[in-house]
Fold DNA-3-methyladenine glycosylase II.
Amino acid sequence: MNYVVAIDTLKQADPILAEVIEQVGECRLNQVQQTGDLLSSLCRSIIYQQLSGKAATTIHQRFLQLYTVLTPSNILNTPDDILREVGISRPKISYLKDLAQRFDKLPTIDDLLLMDDENIIKILTEVKGIGRWTVQMLLMFRLHRWDVLPVDDLGIRNAIHRLYSLPELPNKLTVEQLGENWKPYRTIACWYLWSSLSITKSEKL
């Protein structure tokens, strides 16, 4: 993917983000984009909720190893105790099984590609345990939408708090207002904000 126009636009719109872009370097969002069908993408998003990346990756890999093929019926037929053994919490087990029960009535990835973001959020958040943030991760990393801003994401809020020298973590409204400067490339801006968190405080931003 060619991010040149997006990056130039973001640099001109936000001097602080421009410094982050210079320090982080090339946008590698395309290297973390996901493939697979809607079931695998949503299962992954559910498992990753409220966990560190490392812990979530381990649990997700163990979950996938339970199945030769990931299907709704296979998930429904898996005893809760087996899912607990791979590290999935009881609430998330109920979310995964609700997803499996509803899955046949959900759109396919190809269907979603033709829909606007808010309509996708409306449809998928009807599934138990799938909130706006979860769908936004799908929009960003599976459907490759370039203008998504997950205002509830703690990493985004932490990055903004640090980079913009705010006295406390920004609330949703503050994130939304700042994000107005990044349209229509808010996904790209978020990738740089997440990336900035790996830069040590001793390094100048």
Notes: The two ends are 26 Å apart (CA to CA).
